[in-house]
């Protein structure tokens, strides 16, 4: 590859000018959330249609709902579920619905008291379902969680009660093109100043130094949150100095020309495509992109934890992954369902899933075994150890925060508002 001679520039932190922000009306809540808010208190008990007669000592069928509709994911999960159920004298009725339909399906089942025995939920959605009382705390079912990362256990908690377990999780990292950095004499950045300087140096011709998703919705918001949290910011205090400084740095890279302003339309897959095609030297993305990176001919890449504001700061990224929960049914059905979930979270299942899906085992010792077998996952494993649940500081307000923060990111990238204006607008939408 041709050696690029790049100018050395720094990217100082910026102080956003003050302008009056236009008023915006709050985004409308989705129909799913409206239904959740309307669920009557009578649903807080007896949320399953499971037979009330005793099932002890009998072979029973446990119903399962998840969103693994694609193959081989559906078949692989069914095999694991069936094997785990056999240990407690049970069979499995495994149903999957497309991911966008899962929440509405769950809420409909809560309202009709037809929840399955075992329910998978996406971790940001746990609070709204636990709030209804439809889920049994796993702490009441003697599920062993002693080997889990504390950060992973927090993802499954609501009001300090553990409701869900994730066998495997994922997060975000900084991916970089080794060849491009070497040719430009750029070290792998670890701080914001280093990231800004590297992005400036690596921006050459039609190549940008850095890429990320700033698309409307969760993908764009999720990608920014490590910068917010690592700077001490909160999703419920979006107009605080820590949040403004984080957004100013993050979107300033686009305003300065080191990141394409087209990121407002890019998904994480689009950012990956820019990286693999050589049009971006670095990117923020997740381990689900590793197969594509490995298949790209001639691409020499590496990954590291997302740069932090200053040397010595702790990177704090959001955790992704699905949680397995036990809806309220009968004591025997709940006990067997909990055993199945404990089995799904066993070391062997965790490692097999991690190697297949490029995820991180929730068991700390198993995660270290993953690094031994898949060294490319080391930066993600390191990130998981200090990561937080996406709703850790927003709780039931996550959907409002997601919409407001997403709009703020896009407004700041495109220059429609300063970061300070955009976040003040966002905070007025989220409220106290």
Biggest β-sheet: strands ordered side by side in the sheet: 2-1-3-12-6
Q: Report the count of strand segments.
A: 14
The CATH architecture of the largest domain comes to 3-Layer(aba) Sandwich
CATH class of the largest domain: Alpha Beta
Strand content: 5-15%
What would you give as the CATH superfamily of the largest domain? Answer: Periplasmic binding protein-like II
Task: Give a brief rundown of this model.
The chain has 432 residues and is an alpha/beta fold. The protein is 41% helix and 12% strand. The radius of gyration is 23 Å and the shape is globular.
Q: Can you describe this structure?
A:
- The protein is built from 17 helices and 14 strands.
- By secondary structure, it is α/β, with parallel strands linked by helices.
- The protein folds into 2 domains: 31-168 and 322-374, D-Maltodextrin-Binding Protein, domain 2; 173-316 and 394-430, D-Maltodextrin-Binding Protein, domain 2, CATH 3.40.190.10.
- The strands form 5 sheets. Strands 2-1-3-12-6 form a 5-stranded mixed β-sheet.
- It starts with 30 loop residues before the first helix and ends with a helix.
- Mean pLDDT is 88; it is low at 1-51.
What is this structure's SSE topology?
Blueprint: H1 31-38, E1 60-66, H2 73-86, E2 90-96, H3 99-112, E3 118-122, H4 126-130, H5 150-155, E4 157-158, E5 161-162, E6 164-165, E7 168-169, E8 173-177, H6 178-184, H7 192-202, H8 218-230, H9 241-255, H10 268-276, E9 282-285, H11 290-295, E10 301-304, E11 318-319, E12 322-325, H12 331-344, H13 347-357, E13 360-361, H14 364-373, H15 378-384, E14 388-389, H16 398-414, H17 419-430
Parallel strand pairs: 1-2, 1-3, 11-14
Antiparallel strand pairs: 3-12, 4-5, 6-12, 7-13, 8-9, 8-10
Helix pairs in contact: 2-12, 8-9, 8-16, 9-16, 13-14, 16-17
């Amino acid at each position: 590859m041709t050696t690029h001679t790049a100018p050395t520039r720094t990217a100082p932190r910026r102080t956003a000018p003050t302008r009056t922000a236009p008023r915006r009306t709050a985004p409308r809540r989705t129909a799913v959330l409206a239904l959740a808010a309307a669920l009557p208190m009578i649903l807080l008990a007896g949320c399953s249609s499971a037979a009330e007669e005793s099932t002890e000592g009998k072979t029973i069928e446990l119903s399962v709902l998840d969103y693994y509709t694609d193959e081989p994911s559906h078949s692989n999960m069914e095999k694991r579920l069936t094997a785990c159920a056999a240990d407690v004298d049970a069979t499995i009725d495994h149903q999957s619905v497309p991911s966008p339909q899962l929440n509405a399906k769950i809420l409909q089942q809560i309202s009709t008291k037809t929840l399955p025995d075992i329910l998978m939920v996406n971790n940001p959605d746990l609070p709204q379902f636990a709030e209804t009382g439809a889920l049994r705390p796993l702490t009441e079912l003697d599920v062993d969680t002693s080997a889990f990362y504390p950060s992973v256990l927090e993802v499954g908690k609501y009001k300090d009660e553990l409701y869900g377990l994730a066998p495997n999780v994922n997060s975000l990292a900084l991916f970089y093109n080794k060849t491009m950095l070497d040719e430009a004499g750029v070290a792998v950045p670890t701080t914001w100043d280093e990231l800004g300087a590297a992005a400036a140096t690596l921006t050459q011709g039609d190549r940008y130094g850095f890429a990320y998703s700033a698309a409307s919705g969760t993908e764009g918001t999720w990608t920014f949150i490590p910068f917010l949290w690592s700077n001490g910011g909160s999703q419920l205090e979006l107009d605080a100095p820590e949040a403004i400084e984080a957004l100013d740095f993050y979107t300033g890279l686009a305003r300065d020309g080191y990141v394409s302003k087209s990121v407002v339309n890019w998904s994480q897959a689009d950012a990956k495509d820019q990286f693999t095609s050589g049009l971006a030297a670095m990117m923020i993305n997740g381990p689900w992109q590793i197969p594509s990176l490995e298949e790209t001919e001639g691409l020499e890449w590496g990954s590291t934890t997302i740069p932090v504001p200053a040397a010595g700061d702790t990177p704090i990224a959001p955790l992704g992954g699905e949680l397995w929960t036990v809806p309220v049914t009968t004591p025997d059905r709940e006990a067997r369902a909990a055993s199945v979930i404990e089995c799904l979270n066993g070391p062997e299942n965790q490692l097999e899933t991690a190697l297949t899906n490029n995820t991180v085992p929730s068991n700390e010792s198993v995660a270290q075994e993953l690094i031994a077998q898949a060294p490319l996952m080391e930066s993600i494993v390191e990130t998981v150890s200090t990561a937080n649940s996406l709703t850790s500081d927003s709780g039931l307000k996550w959907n409002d925060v997601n919409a407001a923060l997403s709009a703020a990111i896009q407004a700041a990238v495109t220059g429609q508002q300063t970061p300070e204006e955009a976040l003040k607008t966002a905070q007025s939408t989220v409220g106290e």
